[in-house]
């Protein structure tokens, strides 16, 4: 089994770790297939309630391993095929009902932006840097960047990053809305675990479906989204977990109302 991406599942938490630190976790052909396979495994595992996406080494992900692809003898058709494989993994995770938090350090470049944005909540080290670099080497965005980046920061800002040789600092990324939190590097992993733990300790499935509704809603007609919302809240309302939580909420509301009127 490949170790280019590690997967560890314990007590409802799946940890997915990019593990090619010598290559700044850039994805080559083999790693792309591993990413898709792990995405399938994580999203089909009913025991998984939350996911942490992180990386070994000094960088989160430098995107596609252009050097490995260029020296492999592969042509454009093979690159396109690999992009489709990686895209399946991104789509599988992003549209699933598993909430994902990313712990990000160091450089995030090119397709690494798309892989990072597969996560629903991103905690970045204050030393993290974010850059496109596609056009600098004559290539175009892939790995979801042309969709996920403007969804996160808006079209104009996405174009600024893609059409200029610009590097965002962690603080700029926070200001743009590219990441949710910026912390000292030593605190990032712990904070990601805290967020995942919050999901697992509470109504895990409800958080997951809220994420799914938002992600899928971007690409569907409004009426279809409303139908999905109606079906989802009805299905959740009938679960034992929801009934228990709703009853507790109602009891607390009655108690507060009684105290207020006393």
Automatic annotation (TrEMBL):
InterPro entries: ClpP/crotonase-like_dom_sf (IPR029045), Enoyl-CoA_hyd/isom_CS (IPR018376), Enoyl-CoA_hydra/iso (IPR001753), Enoyl-CoA_Hydratase/Isomerase (IPR051683). Pfam families: ECH_1. It comes from the Bacteria. CDD domains: crotonase-like. Belongs to the enoyl-CoA hydratase/isomerase family. This is Enoyl-CoA hydratase/isomerase family protein. It comes from Microbacterium gallinarum.
């Amino acid at each position: 089994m490949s170790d280019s991406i590690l997967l560890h599942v314990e007590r409802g938490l799946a940890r997915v770790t990019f593990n090619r630190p010598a290559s700044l976790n850039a994805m080559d052909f083999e790693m792309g297939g591993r990413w898709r396979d792990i995405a399938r495994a994580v999203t089909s595992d009913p025991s998984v309630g939350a996911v942490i996406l992180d990386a070994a080494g000094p960088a989160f992900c430098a995107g596609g391993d252009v050097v490995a692809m260029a020296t492999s003898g592969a042509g454009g058709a093979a690159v396109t095929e690999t992009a489709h494989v990686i895209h399946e993994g991104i789509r599988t995770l992003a549209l699933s009902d598993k909430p994902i938090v990313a712990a990000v350090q160091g450089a995030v470049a090119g397709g690494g932006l798309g892989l990072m944005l597969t996560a629903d909540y991103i905690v970045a080290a204050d030393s993290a840097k974010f850059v496109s670099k596609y056009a600098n080497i004559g290539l175009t965005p892939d790995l979801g960047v042309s969709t996920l980046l403007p969804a996160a920061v808006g079209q104009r800002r996405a174009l600024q990053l893609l059409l200029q040789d610009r590097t965002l600092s962690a603080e700029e990324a926070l200001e743009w809305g590219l990441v949710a939190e910026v912390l000292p590097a030593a605190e990032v992993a712990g904070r990601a675990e805290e967020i995942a733990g919050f999901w697992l300790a509470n109504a895990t499935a409800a958080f997951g479906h809220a994420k799914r509704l938002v992600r899928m809603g971007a690409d569907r007609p409004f009426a279809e989204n409303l139908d999905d919302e109606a079906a989802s809240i009805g299905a959740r309302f009938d679960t034992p977990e929801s009934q228990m939580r709703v009853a507790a909420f109602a009891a607390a509301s009655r108690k507060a109302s009684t105290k207020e009127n006393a």
